[in-house]
Structures are given as structure tokens and as C-alpha cells.
Write a structure and sequence with these properties.
323 residues; alpha/beta; D-Maltodextrin-Binding Protein, domain 2; 2 domains; ten-stranded mixed β-sheet; 11 helices; globular; Extra-cytoplasmic solute receptor protein; BUG; Bug_dom1; signal; plasmid
């Protein structure tokens, strides 16, 4: 009899739990959503988080608060997500660096990008750009290589995540030159130091550099896409400048903590996918020079896995080992 009562009580608890969960998913969200950005304000990732966070919040009927947690190649922001409940109220704006590059170039990574995080939706991708100060004698990729080899010391190259550092190392390996990576927490300070001549070069997201490029305050030596960028048709690609195997893009995506219920993840994903299909999103991407990457959760995970395989090959070709 006691066993039967215990069994009935357990069934009742499970039924109640399922009912509470169903109500939670149906009513989600009932309060503001937090979007964590593992980079400083002013970067391409930060701009995307603010725009798509606002659009997502509008579709869900709740405000979205963006919180910048820069540092340690994205580890600080990811740890903040891991410390939050798996309830959909904390979303990470992640990029290719913490999701696909860190596992390849960093030892003892305190998170597993495939097991600890769950994709919500891809957002966009953009090519990188090699920048130099406006007064730099470097005007072409050939100038860059010659200058690096003639000066007798490594180039000082600014980057703000492992993905950009890997992009710089890949090119340096192909061109047979040396550089010293100067790490930053975000793109804004890199732009300031390129303008001021504190850096020989920077490898950054093109979207975050468009305004300064059009104002003539910095110079683009080359872009890293398969083809030239539509907004800068006179800037060549690395690929056409003597390095046919070189092409590199950065991308951003929303993630939640692993364990977040599928129905809540799907609700977030639907809101983002709706925003990505709007004319307003097309207009936003046009200002940033990016392309849409509207992968739903399953497709985003598959894309992430392909990117990890690609970056593993790039690291091997560049002789880069985990540190």
C-alpha cells in the first residue's frame, strides 16, 4: 500500500512539474531578457547584439538588455552564461572565435562549445579587413609583405579575439613574415590605435571599420572574402593578391545555455528568424556590409561543427598549436 501511494505521489509530482514547465514555456518571456556580449561596445558583434536583441525583444513583447562582458578571448562572457539559469532569459551573442576557434588554439578551455552551449539562431557573417594607418607607406598586400621583411622586426598587429589572431597568423605563415599579436578587448580601441599609428596593422571585422574607412581616417590594404566587397570595389582580396587559398569570414549567432528547454529555445529562434527576414534587417546589414546567416538551431550547430573542422585545418597549415 505504501509503495502504491508513493508511486501515485511521484506520478502526481511529475504531472505537476510538466504542467508548470508547459505554462512557463507558454508564458515565456514574462520579464526582460539579457544578451551578453563577450566584447566591448563598438565592435561588430556588439552592434549586432543590440540590433537583433531589440528586434527579438519586440517580437517577444519584452525589453532586451545588452551587457558587455569583454576579456579573455570571450571566456568571461561565456562563463556569465554558464552561471545563469538555463531558462532562456540569458542569451549569448557568440562569434566564430569562442565557438569555433578557441577550442583549437587554447589549452584547458573551461567550456565545451558543443556541450555547454545551445544554438538559437545564426545572425550574419562578414569578411575581415587588413587595416593600416592612413599615413602608412603600405598600400598593397605586396607592400605589406615587403615592408614586414625589410624592417627587421615583426609587425605589430592588433586583434581582439582568437579568430582574428588566427587569420593574421595564417596569412603570416603563407607570406613568410613575422608579427607580434597585440590583443585588445574590442575593436573600438584598435581603431583608435590604428589612427594614431600605434599599430602597424590590424585584422578586424569589416563592419566595424566601414565608417572610418569611408571617412579616410584609415586604409584598407585587403579584404578576406572570396570576392571583393560590394562597398569597397577598389580594395582587393587577399585571395587575388597572390594567396589563392586564403579566405576568411567572421560570424555571429545567438546561443543559450545547454539544458534550456527546446520549446523556449524554439520561441527565441522564431523571433530571431522573423527579424532576419524583414526589410529592416536587410537595411541594417547593408550599413554593416554583412550578409544574413539565418540558420535555425539544428543548421547552426551543423555550421559550427564545419567551422571547427575548417579552423582546425587552418591552424595546422599555419603551424599553430594550443597554448
Amino acid at each position: 500500500m505504501n509503495t502504491r501511494r508513493a508511486l501515485l505521489a511521484m506520478i502526481g509530482l511529475l504531472t505537476l512539474s510538466a504542467s508548470v514547465h508547459a505554462e512557463t514555456a507558454k508564458e515565456f518571456p514574462s520579464r526582460p531578457i539579457r544578451v551578453i556580449v563577450p566584447f566591448t561596445s563598438g565592435s561588430g558583434s556588439d552592434t549586432s547584439a543590440r540590433y537583433y536583441g531589440e528586434q527579438m525583444g519586440r517580437a517577444l513583447g519584452q525589453p532586451v538588455v545588452v551587457e558587455n562582458r569583454p576579456g579573455a578571448n570571450g571566456l568571461i562572457g561565456i562563463q556569465a552564461l554558464k552561471n545563469a539559469p538555463a531558462d532562456g532569459y540569458t542569451v549569448l551573442l557568440a562569434s566564430n572565435s569562442p565557438m569555433s576557434v578557441n577550442p583549437i588554439v587554447m589549452k584547458n578551455l573551461p567550456y565545451d562549445p558543443l556541450k555547454d552551449l545551445k544554438p538559437v539562431s545564426g545572425l550574419s557573417r562578414n569578411m575581415n579587413v587588413f587595416l593600416v594607418p592612413e599615413k602608412s607607406p603600405i598600400k598593397t598586400v605586396a607592400d605589406l609583405v615587403a615592408h614586414a621583411k625589410d624592417r627587421g622586426k615583426p609587425l605589430a598587429v592588433g586583434t581582439y579575439s582568437a579568430g582574428y589572431q588566427l587569420a593574421a597568423a595564417w596569412f603570416a605563415n603563407l607570406a613568410g613574415l613575422q608579427f607580434v599579436n597585440v590583443p585588445y578587448k574590442g575593436q573600438a580601441q584598435i581603431m583608435t590605435d590604428v589612427i594614431g599609428g600605434q599599430l602597424d596593422m590590424a585584422v578586424v571585422d569589416l563592419g566595424g571599420a566601414i565608417t572610418l574607412l569611408k571617412e579616410g581616417k584609415i586604409r584598407a590594404v585587403a579584404v578576406t572574402g572570396e570576392t571583393r566587397h560590394r562597398d569597397f570595389p577598389n580594395v582587393p582580396t587577399i585571395k587575388e593578391s597572390g594567396y589563392p587559398d586564403y579566405a576568411q569570414y567572421s560570424w555571429v549567432s545567438f546561443y543559450v545555455r545547454a539544458g534550456t528547454p527546446d520549446d523556449i529555445t524554439d520561441k527565441l529562434a522564431t523571433a530571431v528568424q522573423t527579424a532576419l527576414k524583414s526589410p529592416e534587417s536587410d537595411a541594417f546589414l547593408a550599413t554593416k556590409g554583412g550578409d544574413p546567416m539565418p540558420y535555425p538551431p539544428k543548421e547552426m550547430r551543423q555550421f559550427q561543427e564545419r567551422e571547427m573542422a575548417r579552423f582546425r585545418k587552418v591552424a595546422a597549415a599555419a603551424g599553430i598549436k594550443p597554448e
